[in-house]
Amino acid sequence: MRVLVLGGTGFVGRAVVRQLSAAGHQITVVSRRIERNRHLRLVPNLTLVEEPKLTDLVLRKLIHGHDAVINLIGILNASGRDSFHNVHVAIARRVASACQAETVCRLIHMSALGASIDAPSEYLQTKAEAEVVVSSHGLKTTIFRPSVIFGEGDSFVNRFKTLMDITPVMGVVCPQAQLSPVWVEDVASAFVDALENNETIGQTYELCGGRTYSMLELVRAIAEASQKNIKFISLSDRMSKTMGKLFGMLPGKLFTQDQYLSLQTPSV
Questions:
Q1: Is it the case that residue 106 has pLDDT exceeding 90?
Q2: Per-residue pLDDT at 80
Q3: d(Cα 37, Cα 148) in Å, to the nearest integer?
Q4: What is the reported pLDDT for 97?
Q5: Whole-angstrom Cα distance, residue 28 to residue 104?
Q6: Is the pLDDT reported for residue 48 higher than 90?
Q7: Can you tell me the distance from the alpha carbon of 31 to that of 268, in angstroms, rounded to the nearest whole number?
Q8: 3-state helix/strand/coil string of the chain
Q9: Cβ count near 112 (within 10 Å)
Q10: pLDDT tens, 85-100?
């Protein structure tokens, strides 16, 4: 099968394209700057295409001739023109419309666990809006809603690990927030297995690991696995909210107000 992977250079995308290649599919991956992703050229059956901007015309040209599209495009933090609505909703609409125009009916889309129009965070709200958009174009769509995804090169476990390398004391925001982390290779396997399984068409699947952790339990597990002796301090809800406002204004956006709001919805 000829598969276009949008967002294929990201953390989840790299796992998806590896498994697509191992399954014998022909893959096209789009990159804004090829020199940053040259390593992907080593993946068998993969064509790397440079496109600085995904205009409607570019999307149609990219989708043309493929059998399926996997859309993994998403952001954790909004910044400037890269708002949650622009990246999650507007791009999803343009991808679905381009698929419709090019009669490429198979579309697999990555959403997020807890996505809901009524969710407290803009991240989860726009993920839900994107689900409605891709489901309204008459395509053969499958939607996946993963919890927090971990694996080599992730931005979740590794961020905590980096902090633990530089401090013996750590404040834990939203310590009772509920999470069911899922391994990136299991997420990738779900995407690849769904491609040719017609029973998945029109379905939405939640992807979780085998255990639910509180945020405090999770950071303790990371410390134990990293052999770090860390003193954890559970921050109150008020302090967690304040940390979201404070860190959200700093470079790198270690923690934001929208992430605080997302953690109010159990990701289980």
A1: yes
A2: 87
A3: 24
A4: 98
A5: 14
A6: yes
A7: 32
A8: CEEEEECCCCHHHHHHHHHHHHCCCEEEEEECCHHHHHHHHHCCCEEEEECCCCCHHHHHHHHCCCCEEEECCCCCCCECCECHHHHHHHHHHHHHHHHHHCCCCEEEEECCCCCCCCCCCHHHHHHHHHHHHHCCCCCEEEEEEECCEECCCCCCHHHHHHHHCCCCEEEECCCCCEECCEEHHHHHHHHHHHCCCHHHCCCEEEECCCCCEEHHHHHHHHHHHCCCCCEEEECCHHHHHHHHHHHCCCCCCCCCHHHHHHCCCCEC
A9: 29
A10: 999 999 999 999 999 9
**Residue 195: CB partners within 8 Å, gap ≥ 6?**
1, 3, 25, 68, 106, 108
How confident is the model over 184-241, as pLDDT tens digits? 999 999 999 999 999 999 999 999 999 999 999 999 999 999 999 999 999 999 999 9
pLDDT surpassing 90 at residue 252: no
What is the model's pTM? 0.96
- Structure token pair of residue 52: 């600085």
In DSSP terms, 48 is beta-bridged to 29
Separation in Å, CA 67 to CA 104, 124, 234: 6, 29, 49
The pLDDT assigned to 124 comes to 98
CB 224 within 8 A of CB 216: no
Closest CA to 16 of 262, 195, 198: 195
